[in-house]
Amino acid sequence: MTLGSLFGVSVRMSPWYVLLLFYLMFQLAPSFDRFADGYAERIAVLGLVNAAFTFTLLAHEFSHVLVARKFGAETDEVLLHGLGGFAKLRALPSTPGGLFLMSAAGPAANLALALGLSAIGLPFDGELIRALVAWTIYANFAIASFNLIIAHPLDGGQMLHAILWKLTGDREKSERACQWIAIGIGPFLTGAGLQRESPIMVLVGMYLLLNGFVRLQKTPAPSA
User: What is the rounded CA–CA span in Å between residue 63 and residue 149?
Assistant: First the structure.
Protein backbone atom coordinates (compact mmCIF):
# COMPACT_ATOMS: atom_id res chain seq x y z
CA MET A 1 0.00 0.00 0.00
CA THR A 2 1.35 3.41 -0.99
CA LEU A 3 1.27 5.99 1.80
CA GLY A 4 2.54 8.93 -0.24
CA SER A 5 5.88 10.38 -1.25
CA LEU A 6 8.63 12.41 0.40
CA PHE A 7 11.58 14.09 -1.32
CA GLY A 8 10.31 12.57 -4.56
CA VAL A 9 10.50 9.00 -3.18
CA SER A 10 7.43 6.80 -2.83
CA VAL A 11 6.69 5.45 0.66
CA ARG A 12 4.96 2.07 0.73
CA MET A 13 3.75 -0.14 3.56
CA SER A 14 3.74 -3.93 3.44
CA PRO A 15 0.92 -5.87 5.17
CA TRP A 16 3.69 -7.36 7.31
CA TYR A 17 4.36 -3.89 8.71
CA VAL A 18 0.80 -3.76 9.99
CA LEU A 19 1.47 -7.06 11.75
CA LEU A 20 4.64 -5.55 13.25
CA LEU A 21 2.62 -2.59 14.56
CA PHE A 22 0.07 -4.91 16.17
CA TYR A 23 2.92 -6.87 17.77
CA LEU A 24 4.37 -3.60 19.07
CA MET A 25 1.00 -2.61 20.51
CA PHE A 26 0.66 -5.97 22.24
CA GLN A 27 4.13 -5.68 23.76
CA LEU A 28 3.75 -2.08 24.93
CA ALA A 29 0.13 -2.16 26.10
CA PRO A 30 1.03 -2.94 29.76
CA SER A 31 3.40 0.06 29.88
CA PHE A 32 0.86 2.56 28.50
CA ASP A 33 -2.42 1.24 29.92
CA ARG A 34 -2.21 3.58 32.89
CA PHE A 35 -2.66 6.57 30.58
CA ALA A 36 -6.03 5.44 29.22
CA ASP A 37 -9.50 4.70 30.54
CA GLY A 38 -11.37 2.37 28.27
CA TYR A 39 -10.62 0.51 25.05
CA ALA A 40 -10.85 3.51 22.68
CA GLU A 41 -8.36 5.56 24.69
CA ARG A 42 -5.93 2.62 24.84
CA ILE A 43 -6.03 2.28 21.06
CA ALA A 44 -5.46 6.04 20.67
CA VAL A 45 -2.45 6.02 23.01
CA LEU A 46 -0.91 3.00 21.33
CA GLY A 47 -1.59 4.63 17.97
CA LEU A 48 0.60 7.53 19.09
CA VAL A 49 3.33 5.04 20.02
CA ASN A 50 3.10 3.45 16.57
CA ALA A 51 3.23 6.88 14.94
CA ALA A 52 6.42 7.69 16.87
CA PHE A 53 7.91 4.34 15.81
CA THR A 54 7.01 4.92 12.15
CA PHE A 55 8.51 8.42 12.26
CA THR A 56 11.70 6.94 13.71
CA LEU A 57 11.96 4.40 10.89
CA LEU A 58 11.27 7.00 8.20
CA ALA A 59 13.89 9.35 9.64
CA HIS A 60 16.38 6.48 9.47
CA GLU A 61 15.55 5.45 5.91
CA PHE A 62 15.33 8.95 4.44
CA SER A 63 18.72 9.77 5.92
CA HIS A 64 20.05 6.94 3.76
CA VAL A 65 18.08 8.25 0.78
CA LEU A 66 19.33 11.84 1.02
CA VAL A 67 22.99 10.93 1.57
CA ALA A 68 22.89 8.34 -1.23
CA ARG A 69 21.51 11.04 -3.53
CA LYS A 70 24.58 13.17 -2.80
CA PHE A 71 26.67 10.35 -4.28
CA GLY A 72 24.50 9.89 -7.37
CA ALA A 73 22.52 6.91 -6.06
CA GLU A 74 18.78 7.41 -6.54
CA THR A 75 16.07 5.57 -4.61
CA ASP A 76 12.92 4.05 -6.11
CA GLU A 77 10.97 3.71 -2.87
CA VAL A 78 11.08 3.31 0.89
CA LEU A 79 9.26 0.20 2.07
CA LEU A 80 8.00 -0.34 5.62
CA HIS A 81 7.95 -4.09 6.19
CA GLY A 82 7.76 -6.70 8.92
CA LEU A 83 11.35 -6.21 10.08
CA GLY A 84 11.42 -2.42 9.91
CA GLY A 85 12.24 -0.26 6.90
CA PHE A 86 14.16 -0.59 3.65
CA ALA A 87 15.29 1.99 1.10
CA LYS A 88 15.29 0.43 -2.38
CA LEU A 89 18.23 2.08 -4.08
CA ARG A 90 18.72 1.68 -7.81
CA ALA A 91 22.44 1.29 -7.15
CA LEU A 92 24.82 1.71 -4.24
CA PRO A 93 27.35 4.58 -4.18
CA SER A 94 30.30 3.83 -6.41
CA THR A 95 33.03 4.66 -3.85
CA PRO A 96 33.88 3.21 -0.43
CA GLY A 97 33.50 6.63 1.16
CA GLY A 98 30.07 7.11 -0.35
CA LEU A 99 28.92 3.68 0.79
CA PHE A 100 30.22 4.29 4.32
CA LEU A 101 28.57 7.71 4.68
CA MET A 102 25.27 6.50 3.22
CA SER A 103 25.21 3.51 5.57
CA ALA A 104 26.18 5.56 8.61
CA ALA A 105 23.51 8.19 7.92
CA GLY A 106 20.61 6.10 9.24
CA PRO A 107 22.05 5.28 12.68
CA ALA A 108 23.46 8.82 12.91
CA ALA A 109 19.98 10.27 12.34
CA ASN A 110 18.51 8.06 15.07
CA LEU A 111 21.25 8.98 17.53
CA ALA A 112 20.77 12.67 16.73
CA LEU A 113 17.01 12.36 17.33
CA ALA A 114 17.55 10.49 20.60
CA LEU A 115 20.07 13.03 21.89
CA GLY A 116 17.95 15.95 20.73
CA LEU A 117 14.82 14.60 22.43
CA SER A 118 16.84 13.86 25.55
CA ALA A 119 17.95 17.48 25.65
CA ILE A 120 14.63 19.20 24.93
CA GLY A 121 11.85 16.61 25.19
CA LEU A 122 11.70 15.41 28.78
CA PRO A 123 10.91 18.81 30.39
CA PHE A 124 7.49 18.79 28.65
CA ASP A 125 4.52 18.79 30.99
CA GLY A 126 2.17 15.82 31.06
CA GLU A 127 2.96 12.29 32.10
CA LEU A 128 1.77 10.77 28.81
CA ILE A 129 3.89 13.13 26.70
CA ARG A 130 6.93 12.42 28.85
CA ALA A 131 6.36 8.68 28.50
CA LEU A 132 5.97 8.96 24.70
CA VAL A 133 9.13 11.07 24.41
CA ALA A 134 11.05 8.64 26.64
CA TRP A 135 9.90 5.68 24.55
CA THR A 136 10.81 7.48 21.30
CA ILE A 137 14.29 8.14 22.70
CA TYR A 138 14.61 4.46 23.55
CA ALA A 139 13.34 3.41 20.10
CA ASN A 140 15.89 5.62 18.35
CA PHE A 141 18.77 4.30 20.45
CA ALA A 142 17.57 0.72 19.90
CA ILE A 143 17.21 1.08 16.12
CA ALA A 144 20.61 2.77 15.81
CA SER A 145 22.32 0.12 17.96
CA PHE A 146 20.65 -2.76 16.14
CA ASN A 147 21.57 -1.42 12.71
CA LEU A 148 25.22 -1.04 13.73
CA ILE A 149 25.58 -4.83 14.06
CA ILE A 150 28.31 -5.75 11.56
CA ALA A 151 26.14 -8.13 9.56
CA HIS A 152 25.29 -7.41 5.94
CA PRO A 153 22.85 -5.93 4.87
CA LEU A 154 22.45 -4.04 8.16
CA ASP A 155 24.14 -0.66 8.22
CA GLY A 156 27.05 -1.91 10.31
CA GLY A 157 27.68 -4.62 7.74
CA GLN A 158 27.58 -2.09 4.91
CA MET A 159 30.00 0.15 6.80
CA LEU A 160 32.35 -2.80 7.30
CA HIS A 161 32.04 -3.55 3.59
CA ALA A 162 33.08 0.01 2.78
CA ILE A 163 36.09 -0.19 5.12
CA LEU A 164 37.28 -3.53 3.66
CA TRP A 165 36.68 -2.24 0.14
CA LYS A 166 38.84 0.81 0.89
CA LEU A 167 41.59 -1.33 2.43
CA THR A 168 41.67 -4.03 -0.26
CA GLY A 169 40.49 -2.15 -3.32
CA ASP A 170 38.26 -5.13 -4.15
CA ARG A 171 34.53 -4.44 -3.85
CA GLU A 172 33.28 -7.98 -4.59
CA LYS A 173 35.79 -9.75 -2.34
CA SER A 174 34.98 -7.40 0.50
CA GLU A 175 31.26 -7.99 0.06
CA ARG A 176 31.73 -11.76 0.13
CA ALA A 177 33.68 -11.47 3.38
CA CYS A 178 30.80 -9.47 4.88
CA GLN A 179 28.28 -12.08 3.74
CA TRP A 180 30.23 -14.79 5.57
CA ILE A 181 30.24 -12.65 8.70
CA ALA A 182 26.46 -12.25 8.42
CA ILE A 183 26.09 -16.02 8.02
CA GLY A 184 28.05 -16.45 11.24
CA ILE A 185 26.07 -13.83 13.18
CA GLY A 186 22.64 -14.98 11.95
CA PRO A 187 22.46 -18.20 14.02
CA PHE A 188 23.75 -16.34 17.10
CA LEU A 189 20.92 -13.79 16.82
CA THR A 190 18.40 -16.56 16.24
CA GLY A 191 19.58 -18.40 19.35
CA ALA A 192 19.54 -15.21 21.40
CA GLY A 193 16.02 -14.48 20.18
CA LEU A 194 14.82 -17.93 21.19
CA GLN A 195 16.38 -17.53 24.62
CA ARG A 196 14.77 -14.12 25.11
CA GLU A 197 11.48 -15.17 23.50
CA SER A 198 11.86 -12.42 20.90
CA PRO A 199 10.29 -13.40 17.57
CA ILE A 200 11.70 -10.29 15.88
CA MET A 201 15.27 -11.24 16.82
CA VAL A 202 14.67 -14.81 15.65
CA LEU A 203 13.37 -13.61 12.27
CA VAL A 204 16.24 -11.14 11.82
CA GLY A 205 18.79 -13.86 12.59
CA MET A 206 17.20 -16.21 10.07
CA TYR A 207 17.04 -13.43 7.50
CA LEU A 208 20.74 -12.60 7.92
CA LEU A 209 21.65 -16.26 7.51
CA LEU A 210 19.50 -16.87 4.41
CA ASN A 211 20.28 -13.50 2.82
CA GLY A 212 23.99 -14.15 3.30
CA PHE A 213 23.82 -17.43 1.37
CA VAL A 214 21.68 -15.89 -1.38
CA ARG A 215 24.01 -12.92 -1.79
CA LEU A 216 27.04 -15.21 -1.90
CA GLN A 217 25.53 -16.87 -4.94
CA LYS A 218 25.06 -13.50 -6.64
CA THR A 219 28.44 -11.98 -5.72
CA PRO A 220 31.22 -13.00 -8.12
CA ALA A 221 33.79 -15.26 -6.53
CA PRO A 222 37.41 -14.06 -6.69
CA SER A 223 39.29 -15.42 -9.65
CA ALA A 224 42.07 -17.92 -9.07
Answer: 18
